[in-house]
Amino acid sequence: MKNITVVGVGYVGLVTGACFADLGNRVVCLDIDKERIENLNKGIMPIYEPGLAELVERNVRADRLHFTTSYAEALKDAEFVFIAVGTPEGVDGEADLQYVRMAAETIAQEMDHPLILINKSTVPVGTGDWVADIVRENQPKPVDFSVVSCPEFLREGSAIPDFLHPDRTILGSEDPEAAERVAQLHLPLRAPIMITDLRTAEMIKYASNAFLATRISFINEIANICEALGADVKEVAKGMGFDKRIGHHFLEAGVGYGGSCFPKDVKALAHMAQVHGRHPQLLQAVMDINAYQRKHVVIKLHELLGDSLEGKVIALLGLAFKQDTDDMREAPSITIGDYCREEGAVVRGYDPVARETALRAMPYLELTDNAYELAEGADALVVLTPWNEFMQLDMARVKEAMHTPILIDGRNLYEPSKMRELGFQYRGIGRGYNGEGLR
Ligand code: UDX
Predict the structure, then answer these.
(1) Is 324 a pocket residue for ligand 1 (Cβ < 6 Å)?
(2) Residue 439: its pLDDT value, please?
(3) Is 340:403 a contact under the CB 8 Å cutoff?
(4) How far is the CA of 250 from the centre of ligand 1 (A)?
């Protein structure tokens, strides 16, 4: 059993804290947001994540997991302090490090025994060194500490299994002994552990996310070419994926990547490159293609509904940036909804989970309680999130409810020929439509 403190109970911090507690450690989670801590003490989660509420409850009951707003209390017995505060996007795509700075300053002022500070937040390369400087400068009297970078690779919706069964643990530090102690903490996860220097570990996180985003933009570009040439991108991706050097993951064409990581991280990496006089041409193309995928949906709407969307009812099926989350950050639905709204359309939406978060992001949205109500009198149905339940819908009933049976399948959930048989005017992404209903 180790004593662990986690600073910041956002997505990453809460999952990290709850999982380390479940592995048998004593964990104190700290946040400066009083309401968030009060709610957590009452068992109310700040985010939707499958299994998280149960995991938190179990470990609070077992007296292994505690929540506080007090640094003094959180640091009293700590050996390891994870920094998992937010790093929102600042100007020019540069990460905003004000919360990391605040956490480092306060830890420095409050620490009275040696600590290992572990950075979980995605931070620009070089931040580990910067954090060490801040701590040194703000300590009232010198106390030993080391900084280790341990980037997270959690996906929303599967964050707990991702934490408990990672592909790898990356640790970076200039202090091999500290890195070794953090490695020991991760041994129960039974994944390969790679120890490297601080800056390389920080870079591994950016490079991994940028690579995955590149795969998505790559397949989206192929999808757009497939549309022109009459090929089916789903089959193309499947065929490509059998090559072991390529693999099947992250080759689903659609409305582009969203969420709290990919858009922010690709932009931040490009920005870091530019600041240092490099030209991140590929990263720029990845971002441009991603932005185009949203516009492409609106172009398809115009193709089918004519030049004006004025007064048309556009029904968005799925609002969250992906399935199994209520997260609306950088969700394609926002950009597409905004475009339609600007053109005078009535924008309606349904999502099984993202409701309040969706209304906050799109105050003009007419939210419905289910997919059939969404389709009622709609001029076009646009699929934006690949929720499993959407695949079980009675699509004949959906079609009957609509004013005009236009289906833009932004996630390629449905079989084009079946949808056309049902009488939909169907458009997928890269599904080889040649203008005459080829597929
Ligand atoms: C991602 C990384 O996977 C994770 O390692 C990192 O720590 C945080 O960022 P997340 O944002 O939760 O996780 O979602 P992910 O499942 O990776 O999907 C990202 C976006 O790409 C979503 O918008 C998803 O819909 C889209 N996507 C994913 C595609 O469009 N096509 C694909 O083939 C895969």
Answers:
(1) no
(2) 44
(3) no
(4) 8
